[in-house]
Amino acid sequence: MDTPLTPARALTATRPEAVPTGVPCRACEYELGGLFSDGNCPECGLPIQASIHGDTLALAAPAWLARVESGAWIIVWTTLSWLGLVIAGRVGITLFTQGAASPTAELVLKVALAGLSVWFLLGVWRLTTPEHDLKPSGRRLLHLVRILMISGVTLNVVQRFGTLSRAAPVPGGMLAYEWLDEFLATAAWACVMFHVTALARRAGAYKMSNSAWLTGWFIAASLGVMILAMCIGLLVSVSVVPGAPGGLLMGILGCWGAIVIPVTLLCALVLVGQFAHRLELVRHRATLIRSHQRFQPAPPPDASAQT
Questions:
Q1: Positive or negative CA dihedral for 285, 289, 294, 295?
Q2: 271-307: b or e for each residue (b if 16 or more CB lie within 10 Å)?
Q3: In the chain, fewer beta carbons within 10 Å around the N or the C end?
Q4: DSSP classification of residue 259
Q5: CA pair distance 192, 124, nearest whole angstrom
Q6: What stretch of H or E contains 214?
Q7: What is the pLDDT along the chain (307 residues), one digit of tens a residue?
């Protein structure tokens, strides 16, 4: 069950406690013993509260939370806009041109979709912004998400404009491009879900975290289905025996690709939207905590130190 975010209670100005000996900084391992708990690490600037209370997302920097939140919202709205544009474009072509669209109409639709793809990449880039104190292993996962998504979207745009030019010197070449960009984008979505899993757990949204984890593994399983379908398709295409086995299995895999993968990606999109809303609440709480730390009066001087 998710931990509810209640409005922050009035924070009274009390003298902060000293950090006990043996508490290292999460980011740089600096010894924080003896420092006041409301300050920052003198070595790297990370709030000491983050090292005391662990990975609670409400103690993260509000600016970083705002950046991640905006990335999640960009992903949601650009994806919905992309789907709406595709549906509206195809319906318009069918109604007004009897299914035979002019090259100009196709070009306008493809340029608009390419623009939304670039905007979508901006959302992914902001969502995967590394945190200040993130360890190298976590940074590598975020960099992998960026590389996969950029590669997939770039291939998608190339494939669309390549189809428009009708230039296909190698038979089936564009189909290979299409399969590869879908594979890369699907892999990136799996990594995004695992990233949301970790952040949602830090935000106290345990139910959302479990749902994102399950969705991520469904998407990862879809990658295996895509590879298996490609291998079976290649075997069937090069087989010289009429009625080679694999047709039934290809039908099952095709149903997976046509039903399970789109439904799973839709669930992932809904989870990203819920996560963005959760981040908005967490960001407000983090801002209140930082404001309290900034305006808290300094502790009175120790009388024993003056004598």
A1: positive
A2: bbbbbbebbebbbbbbbbbbeebeebeeeeeeeeeee
A3: C
A4: I
A5: 8
A6: helix 206-238
A7: 555 555 544 444 455 677 777 777 877 778 888 888 778 888 887 777 777 666 678 778 889 999 999 999 999 999 899 888 878 777 776 666 665 656 777 777 778 888 888 898 999 999 998 887 666 666 787 888 888 888 888 877 777 776 544 444 333 444 566 677 778 888 888 888 998 998 998 888 889 999 999 999 988 888 887 777 777 766 666 664 555 555 556 566 666 666 777 888 889 999 999 999 999 998 888 888 777 655 544 444 544 444 4
- Given a contact cutoff of 8 angstroms between Cβ atoms, the answer to whether 247 and 229 are in contact is no
Which residue carries 């390549």 as its tokens?
162
CA distances to 96, 153, 156, 163 from 160, rounded to whole Å, are 22, 11, 6, 5
* Structure tokens belonging to residue 115: 């623009």
Length of the chain, please?
307
Hey, what are 58's tokens? 């409400």
Coil, strand or helix: which one is 60? Answer: coil
Residue-range domain boundaries for the chain: 1-54, 57-279
